[in-house]
Write a structure and sequence with these properties.
Layout: H1 7-24, E1 27-28, E2 33-34, E3 46-48, E4 52-54, E5 59-60, E6 64-67, E7 78-80, E8 85-86, E9 91-93, E10 96-98
Parallel strand pairs: 1-3, 2-4, 3-6, 4-7, 5-8, 6-9, 7-10
Length: 99
């Protein structure tokens, strides 16, 4: 949500994340880079790691994980390009590029 942030922005990001998590079960870690146009039409069970680099106009369906596996190197990222549609019950794990 916020990769370059002040303490106030980080605090706001954590507050937003807590609200999303408690109401919808959405967990977007601070440090995830997400372009404009993120669409979550069925907002339940979404997890996005801080190692995600996501382009514009991503559509995520319910129960989707964009996560990292243990042992992922510091410079390894999950890269999702522009205009990607990810269906329900999908797990994207590890250092991978999509789109």
């Amino acid at each position: 949500m916020y990769i370059y942030s002040s303490k106030k922005q980080k605090k706001t990001g954590l507050w937003i994340n807590r609200k999303l998590n408690s109401k919808f079960g959405i967990d977007i870690e601070l440090g995830a880079v997400i372009g404009y146009g993120l669409d979550i039409p069925h907002h339940m069970g979404i997890v996005i790691t801080k190692k995600a680099r996501i382009g514009c106009n991503l559509s995520l369906k319910q129960n989707t994980t964009v996560g990292n596996k243990q042992g992922l190197k510091e410079d390894d990222f999950i890269i999702i390009g522009n205009n990607v549609d990810i269906g329900a019950n999908t797990c994207i794990i590890g250092s991978i590029t999509i789109g």
